[in-house]
Amino acid sequence: MRSSLAPGIKFITSFPRDSWYRGFILFLTFLFYTAYHMSRKPISIVKSELHRNCSTVIRPAHLNVTDNDTWCDWAPFDQDNYKTLYGVMDNSFLVAYAIGMFISGIFGERLPLRYYLSCGMLLSGLFTALFGLGFYWDIHSVWYYGFVQAMNGLVQTTGWPSVVTCVGNWFGKGKRGLIMGVWNSHTSVGNILGSLIAGVFVSSAWGMSFIVPGIVIACMGVLCFFFLVEKPEDVNCSLPQHHEGDEEEPLLRNSSSAEEIFSSPGSSTPQPAGEQPEAISFTGALRIPGVLEFSFCLLFAKLVSYTFLYWLPLYIANVAHFESKAAGDMSTLFDVGGIVGGIMAGVVSDYTGGRATTCFVMLTVAAPMLFLYNHVGENGLGTTIGMLLLCGALVNGPYALITTAVSADLGTHESLQGNSKALSTVTAIIDGTGSIGAALGPLLAGLISPTGWNNVFYMLITADILACLLLSRLVFKEVRGWCCRGGRHRGFKEI
User: Fold this and answer.
1) DSSP state of 54
2) In the prediction, which pLDDT does 171 show?
3) Residue 113 and residue 86: Cα distance in Å, rounded?
4) Is the pLDDT of residue 494 over 80?
5) What is the distance between the alpha carbons of residues 195 and 336, in angstroms, rounded to a whole number?
6) Is the pLDDT confidence value at 289 over 90?
């Protein structure tokens, strides 16, 4: 009697080879960028430990101190200018990140992504750990911490253009918003894990809050070296379709023919065998329709997101009077909301074809919600949780959509005539411009917060409104396209 195939094996073999590779690359790049964000988050948790209210801390009996107000603080953050010094550290990282991002995309188009990404993660692990080692080496120089942060910001620019390029190489335009919306949750997952790991050590030995994430991202660099596959053609998989056509197949489909997945008669003509397209120039990438508008919109959207990333735990500790660990744990709810917001933005933009309109609506609603959170957010635990989730979804949804699906759409724009060597450069331009806002946000928060948290929120609301205005032309084009055709308008064909 012939034995039947085991159910587990039957399930595994029901998916074509292409789908397994695509799922593997999606999972692998998810892990990589989770580690990147995990290593960035500890600084926001540790801030409330470097400068504390020492009157609420039990002083060891054997400790001799001359200043009862600052005995538990970590010099040089024990003085009244500690918020300014926090701003210096944040901007050491963010300014270096913004500058490096424009250069990183150019290298990403010309170097093997596997080597580039592996080296970036190994160096990120080194500099993240060096910040934490300052605790054990008893270093009290702001120049040391500023330098380590700047170097970490520079090497971390290897991450985003590389992972977006890799995912863009493997996945076509169909359902890109949904796929990348789910995939982009690595940003929030990394922030949550970074907060939780830092919270475990922050009150006992804050140096480990940096050393542990540093080790994790370095291990991810080793994993990348051994397993990353940059392009489908490297393992004889079929190429995805990047432009409009009949691509309506699901991510994983039961089919015996791998060629049927992500392919259609309308696919772009591939380059002749042996002929590699030239990488696009920086100015050439800027001329792609929609790149400038989305870049400057991201500048203001990322300003808001990164201000929350770096200052939310301290805001919760100061306003809601939580302990350092509790404030860090509570701040993760903002990132949980960000996961939901990113997925929602991707699904809606896929269905409507309106990437710009989706961002515009979410940013428009975010502005009054930020105002409301500042005034009622501390009125009870339930209100705090609800407002953090809602604000996280509305703030991070557009940010996630622009840095993933929009970047991939523009980097494989049909005006490039099948040249896929623009994806890293376009991604770097968009995220690099956004990173200028990421650097400005925490800096402005550090300068404004001494005048009151209300003023910080007014600054964030203004940034949201400006982000909306920058998308107005694209929104008009999308709405006009819907009206003219009476149906869905997909992509950026008429921009």
Assistant:
1) G
2) 78
3) 34
4) no
5) 12
6) no
The C-alpha atoms of residue 318 and residue 326 are separated, in whole angstroms, by 12
> Tokens 């084009």 — which residue?
477
Distance between CA atoms of residues 88 and 447, nearest Å: 11
What torsion do the CA atoms of 93, 98, 103, 104 make, to the nearest 10 degrees?
70
Backbone φ, ψ for residue 60 (5° rounding): -60, 140
| % of residues, the chain, pLDDT over 90 | 25
Spatial separation of the C-alpha atoms in residues 95 and 151, rounded to whole Å: 11
User: Cα(198)–Cα(317) distance, rounded to whole angstroms?
Assistant: 16
- Per the document, the length of the chain is 495
pLDDT given at position 261? 26
Q: Give the HSE-up count for residue 443: Cα atoms under 13 Å, Cβ half-sphere.
A: 12
Quick one: 310 exposed, middle or buried, by C-beta within 10 A (0-12, 13-18, 19+)?
buried
Q: Model pTM greater than 0.70?
A: yes
Torsion angle of the four alpha carbons 295, 296, 300, 301, in this order, in degrees rounded to the nearest 10: -30
Residue 244 in tokens: 């409009």
Region 431-451 average pLDDT: 84
Q: Per mean pLDDT, which range of 21-30, 37-46, 252-261 is the poorest?
A: 252-261
DSSP 157: G
* Mean pLDDT estimate for the chain: 79
Separation between Cα atoms, residue 17 and residue 250, nearest integer Å:
15
Is 28 in contact with 223 (CB distance < 8 Å)?
A: yes
In the DSSP assignment, the letter for residue 493 is T
* 39 vs 459: CA distance, rounded Å: 27
Cis? peptide before 7, omega within 30° of 0? no
Q: At residue 370, what is the residue type?
A: L
CA dist 93 and 16 (Å) reads 43
- Indicate the burial class of 243 (C-beta count within 10 angstroms; 0-12, 13-18, 19 or more): buried
Give CA–CA dist 418/277, Å, rounded.
Answer: 9
Q: Which amino acid is at 452?
A: G
